[in-house]
Please model this.
Amino acid sequence: MINKKGQTLGLAIVSSILCLIIGMMLLNFLMPEITDFRINAQCSNAAGIHDGVKLLCLVSDAAVPYFIVVVFSLVIGGITARLSL
Model:
């Protein structure tokens, strides 16, 4: 007979992979919005940009890596939460 860890580990892995797939699909919807913001804020114009817009450009550049880290954290957390039952 399988204990609780063995029964729920497979479900945790499958649901975490599903969460990863959905998160990466949502990333495709996020990328055009970030590109539009960077074009409208003229983030590539280094000479004509002021401090407030520089900060917004840095935050928009960091949005995609932060989103990926959050998705991977959810996936790893979902798998490891089942291991500690």
